[in-house]
Backbone:
């Protein structure tokens, strides 16, 4: 099983674009997606789920499991603990997407990913160089305008 864990931010595009990039550029196609929802109420959750399903279906995963986990967006310690529970309770490979989440939660996610490197195989980050592309799907963003990054790969390069 391949599990994708991401925090919902202010827009669906950071999540859908990073999943799309992981499928296309890295061949990482999850069959389970866990979305941590700080209940910002700015993202249409049904549309987000439908978009994820369309992307994964295009890469051969026709029936992915998609789960929403609600959290208190201001409870950083509780969110870190919840993320740790999700990693501990997940079998198979895990990818954590740190693109959309609040910075502190993204730092916690990287820390958990490094500590649990036997389970967290990928930590993805897809920053944009220009905010004008923030509301565009991945395939409509010029390659020079984003930096698709797998953090574990960068850390391994530093070890060499």
Residues:
């Amino acid at each position: 099983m391949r599990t994708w864990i991401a925090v919902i931010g202010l827009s669906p595009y950071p999540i859908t674009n990073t999943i799309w990039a992981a499928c296309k550029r890295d061949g990482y196609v999850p069959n389970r997606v866990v979305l941590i929802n700080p209940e910002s109420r700015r993202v249409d959750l049904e549309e987000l789920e439908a978009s994820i399903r369309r992307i994964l279906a295009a890469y051969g995963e026709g029936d992915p499991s998609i789960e929403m986990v609600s959290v208190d967006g201001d409870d950083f310690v509780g969110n870190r603990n919840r993320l740790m529970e999700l990693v501990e309770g997940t079998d198979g490979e895990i990818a954590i997407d740190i693109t959309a989440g609040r910075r502190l939660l993204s730092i916690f996610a990287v820390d958990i990913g490094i500590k649990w490197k036997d389970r967290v195989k990928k930590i993805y980050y897809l920053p944009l160089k220009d905010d004008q592309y923030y509301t565009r799907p991945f395939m409509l963003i010029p390659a020079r305008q984003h930096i698709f990054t797998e953090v574990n790969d960068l850390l391994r390069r530093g070890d060499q």
